[in-house]
Every structure is written in C-alpha cells, then in structure tokens.
Design goal:
two-stranded antiparallel sheet; alpha/beta; 40% helix; single chain; six-stranded parallel beta sheet
Length: 215
C-alpha cells in the first residue's frame, strides 16, 4: 500500500483566525497591542516557539513563560472559526476507499491536533498515524516525523510512491529528506521559500488525480 501524509494548518484546515486571535489574547494579557492577522500568521509553520517568539517579540527569550499562557488561550479558541478547506472530506473519503494509508505530519502542538481533527470529523482516517510537534525528537523539516508516522501505519516503510502534502517549505523539505514525493498547496498560508516540490495544487481535491497515477 502507498501512503500520503498531510500537514494541518494551511493544508487540511484554515485556522488563521483562531491562531491569530489566540496569540492576540496572549498579547493582551501581557499588556501589548494586538497584531494584524496576517502578521501573526506569517510566523506559523515552524513550531510554537517560532510562532510565539515572532509574534511576541517584546518577550523574546521567555518562551517557557509564554507557552502555558498561549496553550490556555488556544485550547479555549482553537475551534471558534477553524474549518476544513473545500474538498477535504470528499478527498479523504475517496483515498480511503482506494486503499491509501493516511497520516498527519504537523508541527502543531499535540494537545490541539486530535481535538481539531475529531471536531471536524476526519480523525478516523488517520488512526494512530499522527505526529505532532513534541511527539518526536525532531520536527519538520526533518524526515524523522515522517518515518515515525509511517511506522505507525502497520509498519509501513516509506517509498518513492508516497507523498507529503503541505503548504510550507518545512513540508516540502521534510518530504524530500524522506525520499518521497511532495505536493505544495498554493491555497494555504505557508511560505515555499526556495524549496522544491513534485506538484502544486490550487484546490485540495486536485490531489486525487495525481495520486491516482501511483495506484
């Protein structure tokens, strides 16, 4: 069987509003002015430390103090406005019917990952093959989370027919480092930088025709 691994923010889910509001609630509690949504979102994709140090530069170097406060705010608001991108449910259902193994490879904190997937009705597609930030010794762009995620798929071994799907350079580099194909989601809010990809998709359901060729 072949496998496909998905990033979350900017790939499966549009979580911009909840990520930005949670950061701004934290800033407010610190007596700081809110930042525009797009400025906050520009720091998403490389893990929580990068997000908080970028979006709260006034407290740079104090991540251990900011982290519990941000966690409480995100736990309270991570489901306020977060939605699936169009075509996600239909695409995942069809891939499951075709026999694809599916996993999650995200730098998102692990306390949020399963709760969001369950709330949006897609947790069942991934089983135990979910790797979040903090679940491995390394995060994307390392290949380690992909290898760990594959191991949770009935012992699946990564091959050149597998795919990593995401909207950020960390996703593309993680896939490349693991020796698998990559699909860049142009509709997301990540940054490609100078990373390479196998294909790019402008809508989530475009993935179906590319993965069909691997069957």
């Amino acid at each position: 069987m072949n496998a496909v691994f998905f990033d979350m923010d900017g790939t499966l889910i549009d979580s911009r509003a909840d990520l930005a509001s949670s950061v701004n609630y934290t800033r407010q509690q610190l007596g700081l002015a809110p930042l525009p949504q797009e400025q906050v979102i520009s720091f998403v994709g490389c893990g929580a430390r990068h997000l908080l140090e970028g979006a709260i530069p006034e407290r740079a170097g104090h991540f251990d103090e900011l982290w519990p406060q941000y966690c409480e705010n995100y736990k309270a608001h991570m489901l306020d406005e977060t939605v699936l991108y169009p075509g996600v449910k239909r695409t995942l259902a069809e891939l499951a019917d075709r026999g694809w193994l599916m996993g999650i490879n995200t730098n998102k904190p692990n306390f949020a990952t399963r709760g969001i997937l369950e709330h949006l009705g897609i947790l069942r597609y991934f089983g135990n093959a979910i790797i979040s930030g903090g679940d491995c010794a390394e995060m994307k762009p390392s290949a380690m989370p992909l290898r760990e995620c594959a191991a949770r798929m009935r012992g699946h071994r990564l091959s050149s027919h597998d795919w990593m799907v995401g909207d950020n350079w960390t996703d593309m580099d993680s896939g490349s480092n693991a020796g698998i194909k990559t699909a860049f989601c142009t509709f997301g809010f990540g940054h490609l930088n100078d990373s390479r990809y196998t294909i790019k998709i402008n809508r989530f359901d475009e993935l179906l025709r590319y993965l069909k060729a691997e069957e």
